Amino acid sequence: MSDNTIIMLRPGSGKNILGLPLLLRAILACHQAGLKTFYLIGSGSQEELRLVERVKKDSRVLPFSHSLHYFQAGSLSFEDRMKTRELFTWSGSFLLLDGEAIFDPLLLEELKLYEPQEREIIVFKPLADSTSDSRWTGLAVGAGKILPELLTGLLSAREGEDDILRALSPTTTVSYQILPAGHFFLKVNSRQTEKEATRLLLATARKPQDGFIAKHINRPISLFFSQRLIRLGASPSLLSFINFLVGLVGAWLAAVGSGYWSFFLAGLCFELASIFDGCDGEVARLTYTTSDKGALSDVILDASSYVIFFSCLDLGLYRLKQDGSYLTLMVIFLLSASWYYFNLARYTRSSGIGKKIFLVAKEIETRPEKEKKLSFIDKVAARLAFTVRRDFFATLVFVLLALKQAPVLAYIISFGWLIESVYFHFYVQKKLVQQAAAEIKID
Questions:
Q1: Are 271 and 395 in contact (CB under 8 A)?
Q2: To 10 degrees, what angle do helices 325-351 and 406-442 make?
Q3: The model's pTM
Q4: Could you point out which of 123, 145, 264, 336 has its C-alpha 20 to 30 Å from the C-alpha of 303?
Q5: Nearest CA to 96 among 80, 108, 86?
Q6: At what angle do helices 390-402 and 406-442 cross, to 10 degrees?
Q7: Sign of CA dihedral 218, 17, 5, 126
Q8: What is the pLDDT of residues 291-338, one digit of tens each?
């Protein structure tokens, strides 16, 4: 599929779903998938013109707003045609969709695999659609050679014409395909479909690497709040900072060391910070506001909150029990954490993982599936990799503090982090050696 998209504007194209008009959401999803040029065809109503202007001025669209072209149906004169000659000389294929629909962003990657024949348009319909293959469903991939006649037909169509396929000549082959499995495409034209669209879009904010606790407990809660935070216009960076403050409150409560309730509330704050840690990423993904800067700040804030919280836990136990061994545990923890994050920085830079540090645990966890010869220690590390997921260890922290096991937790964290740091150091060393050897072999 080429990088061109035709979007048919509809009365519902300006409807807001999770903070974005449907038209804007479609354009951002397509652009993220590598589609660079957009041709919007509408009725020319004042409401529609305001929507197009709003979309073009959106900060997420401004960098490529020059690639958005708007045409009113029935108004394409000969002069207009000459000015937009490229419209009628496309090669390859193009994407055609309705502007009042929502779809799984990953669906576009699947559609790239479809290459229509010379004069063919492939219309996609959902599996549940049992109607005959004779109507426009809202989504298609077409061959470049049929584009002139299609555009001519669309731009001369009567206002309100719903069946785009009528604009095609009899020589065009219309094929129908079932929507690729696991993906959705939905026209939002009723209150019921609005609710369904919201539900489907929220599901796209989940991560495939979510652990059991994140998948069944944390993520449903964070998505519930993310939906409402989007309505309030909260930015991902603001949510990351607020979540960091919640972690700091928990650290302060732990450092107070006044007894059971201070440790219990500290654990509760740590668990809440773990749950709401998903909100910033969910809001960013659902509103197309992700950035490398935001991802980096999120990683730094998370790492800082861990170090501060567990250091304050040791400090609080020292103040409560006046036992110097807890200060020793704090030193062990700080040195281990520093060593671990140093190696993590080395590895993420060399491996190309970048800010996606969750992939490190996933990589270690899936090693037995990819490598046949593993040492006993590597196998144990793979089995225990889930323990470094935030959803798991945050829940463990809360449970142990709720059960009055703060001293046990302090020992687990300090020596657990030490063992993890030692293993990870040698893991990184081995990976860097393998990478260097592979580069030499290529040269």
A1: yes
A2: 20
A3: 0.86
A4: 264
A5: 108
A6: 170
A7: positive
A8: 878 778 888 898 899 999 999 999 999 999 999 999 999 999 999 999
